[in-house]
Amino acid sequence: MSRPRLSVVVPCFNEQEVLAETAARLQSLLESLVQAGKIDATSNVWFVDDGSRDKTWEIIERLCKESHCIRGVKLSKNRGHQQALVAGLFCADGEAVVSIDADLQDDVAVIEHMIDRHREGADVVFGVRKSREKDTFFKRQTAEVFYRLMNWLGAESIRHHADFRLMSRRAVEAFASYREVNLFLRGIIPTLGFRTAIVEYDRGDRFAGTSKYPLRKMIAFALEGITSFSVTPLRMITATGFLVFAATLVMTAWVLWARFFTGEAVPGWASTVLPLYFVGGVQILCLGVMGEYLGKIYTEVKARPRYLIEAMAGVPAEGSAPASYG
User: Per CATH, which fold does 6-210+305-313 belong to?
Assistant: First the structure.
């Protein structure tokens, strides 16, 4: 395979503390890969500002002026990590596109190994963590439960893979045909069906700043993944209905037996209170699950844009030659 033009997409939300270091490391990596003859000299980095409230966009604009290989995309408002990542994938012009978070927890040096697997024929290369030893006990356990649950529900997912991956231009264009608004890329990308490869790496500590995924967002993200990729919860409602019906028949038989053949039955207790609370609780749970799916249908049928781009920086004018390394 000839040397591909590489685009590195970096979603950013309030990342002013780390941006300069991230840009420096990625530029150094691109230069070394160009010198090694593994990527084209027109390779670049795309920073996507996901509606940051700090100086993230100002820093991106400055970086674009200082370096010919850096591009900037500013979304009109905060759309979430997945939407910002999609915006970067669709704006990037590389023949191979790598997505990586701005916090430098993912090892940028691994991108070279991704390029090697891509040059060997892989259209998608997943960055997979070797271990989660640096995570807290709670985060390790909840992550294990999440991946097991996703697999049990029938959703294709790569264990210990986040959004650090390489996609070929063919894979990006195929992904563009997926028009849903409720995005869970960790589940969508494995369904593309192209040749894949895995590169393992050790995840480091965050270089600066604070995590943008507190517990509340992690739970919401997990629910998004489950309800976006599986109808099993809806089928479980049907199964629960049958179980409740069967349990009701058994309880009815017991109540009648106790009423007519023993004198120990408490009037009104078993026949009223227990079924009322049990069936009521099941109904509320089922309505909640159905409401989650109904809400997703509502957002999908409106077909609103996933994101709106407010500004771009460092992007060559149409028809002009792309910037390249000397």
Answer: Spore Coat Polysaccharide Biosynthesis Protein SpsA; Chain A (3.90.550)
